[in-house]
Amino acid sequence: RIVSSQRVALHTGEDSSRLTIYNAVVEDAGIYRCQTTDAQGQTQEATMVLEMYQKLTFRDVRSPQEFRHGEAAEVVCDVIASPAPAVSWFYQKGFKSMEITEEHYSRFQVLPNNNLQIHKVTKADEGVYRCEARVEARGEIDFVDIEVVVNVPPVLSVLQQSFNATADYQESVTFTCVTSGSPDPEVTWHRKGHQLERSEQFVLNTMEGGRSTLTIRNIIQGDEGGYTCRATNKAGAEERELFLKVFGECSSMSFMGIHTYYAIHSRSICVCAYACVCAQSQDGRMDVRGRHGKSMLTISGVKLTDLGRFDCEALSRIGGHQKSMFLDIEYMPKFQTNQTIFYSWEGNPVNISCDVKSNPPATMLWRRERLTISAEGTANTRVHTIDGKSLLEVTPVSDRDFGRYNCTARNNIGAKYQEFILAQADVPSNPYSVRLSAVSQRTATVTFMKPDSHGGVPIGHYLVNYKEVGSQDWRDVKSHGIQTIVLLTGLEPNTTYEVRVAAVNGKGQGEFSHTESFQTLPIREPSPPAVHGQRGMGKAYRLGLVKQDDGGMPIVEYIVKYKTEQWMTKLVSGQQDFALLQPLQWNTRYEVEITARNVKGLSEPTFYHTLSLSGLHPADSLFSGLGLGPVVGLGLVGLLLVIVVVDVSCYFLRQCGLLMCITRKLCSKKTATSGKSKEMEEGKAAYLGDGSKDPIVEMRTEEERITNHDGSPVHEPNETTPLTEPE
């Protein structure tokens, strides 16, 4: 039974009771029972289960953890969480991070307590191991890097075990001991059970490569004997003994070693001499310290902009030298995309993109719940990786393929993960606020608001359904793209219609909106037509007719009236878009009245008052592009051509004209010349034959004068008939 305390409070009312637990801990989890008893002593109860979730916590995980070469090593990773976390182990090798599984690493085993056991650990197993814990239910992940150090017992060797020297000759001997092991062994020198300390006689040096030397200077006879080199580290110890033989006679021996070091440095000049050199950058992040021929550059708060080449230049009185190095900035993975929700449906493939930027390049791993998706993929998943981007192609085949997918990016600096949700797409919701505008006899404009939800897939277009009231046949009109305005055409006048709108995306068509009704306008007379003038040729004028509202029925004809003093009427078919007015007078202004007619009646007239042919002449239209000389020449040629045609026609039809006169003139000259010659010959012959010079005179009576020799009458010339001389 629970009673109120400092951490637990009970609040009981008339019909309810509340239990409050302050500063809840894991131990408070369990089953709580609420029990009530009424006045009759009857008891009822209800139970509630309290689950406590504890954050991922690593407890006292040591790093580094050291082990002796050849033993079974157990790398401890104590992590707690509620619910219990899933623990994975990874081995960081260079830029790569490899997950440790028993099938790939036979000597590795993850124990039930989540610790990692390595059988017969060797130096090759040394490195950074990552203990990664995750609580899938909360999407919580954390890790800790543990450095595993394998200690190898020292191995000791000597280059020369015995030496000879001459006493009292200021001679020196150097013993060299070469050691190896991990960690680097500490070397001490011993003689007769006592450790030798540095002094003027005994010089102790430790050099690179595990070399340790003992130099005995100014050897005397008492220095002869054995000297022990002992190497010790955490894994054990080893020692070797060297011998010095001292002779009475002396010999000479000398050795001198010179070592020069060049340090990597920034572009600041560092004089690598036996002096202290100090410098600092303006922002204080780069600090240079140098002493005794060694210089060090320290960069605090490293940034990506620090990446690049650094040069160190050493100068002295006799010359200089320069060394360069390239600073590479490493950083843990960073996700470049914020899109974490993707939509698809069964049978429709979708690409989930995991775009990561890191240095060194990260390895990316896809997980679905607790299962790792291999690079080869599965029946309906494929993994494509290129240039720091990993694409997971998922083709859902059932509801099980929808849910959470995890992309984990890891390099030797750290790891990050991002959860992606593959949601099942739906059809869009219905559009709303459907409105009708610009309703006429044949057309109407439908406008509407976009739906509140596109179903996870972009809307492709809208579908507008409309029909006459009472009809069952809906007609469809698709919008242009995602425009929310649609024009309905081909409607019947004075008719009531119903209209509704639905949105369509890649998944399919959504629900229709509420049905709206509207009525088209009844048939009426057309609106007054609009006109625009166009200058014509000669005495004609082309008047353009602009189609206006026809009142719901086609325009049958246009009635065009124009006048200066008296009206003239011209009927133009309603299918034409112009009226040709002719003939018109030059330099005259006309008034025009145009009326449109359909089966309902006549429109209001449109008046056009600017029609004028001022300054327009026939010659202007025919010879407007020619000068005065060419026009006169063309006129003369035309006149000559007309004369020739008329004269030829008269010659053949009436045997008259200029051509006929010329022909007769030529023929009569030839006939007259031949007749006169003949008469002269006959007269001369008659004159010479009878020897008489008198002319021959023929006398006739009046009766004989008016008749010819053959008895036909002789026509006398009268006053109206001119006499014609014989040709």
Automatic annotation (TrEMBL):
Residues 691-718 have a biased composition (Basic and acidic residues). It comes from the Eukaryota. The chain crosses the membrane at residues 631-653. GO terms for biological process: cell adhesion. It is found in: Cell membrane. It is a single-pass type I membrane protein. InterPro entries: FN3_dom (IPR003961), FN3_sf (IPR036116), Ig-like_dom (IPR007110), Ig-like_dom_sf (IPR036179), Ig-like_fold (IPR013783), Ig_I-set (IPR013098), Ig_sub (IPR003599), Ig_sub2 (IPR003598). Residues 54-142, 153-245, 333-423 form the Ig-like domain. It holds the Pfam family Ig_3. One of its GO terms (cellular component) is plasma membrane. Residues 673-727 are annotated as: Disordered. Residues 430-523, 525-619 form the Fibronectin type-III domain. Keywords: Cell adhesion, Cell membrane, Disulfide bond, Glycoprotein, Immunoglobulin domain, Membrane, Repeat, Signal, Transmembrane, Transmembrane helix. This is Neural cell adhesion molecule 2.
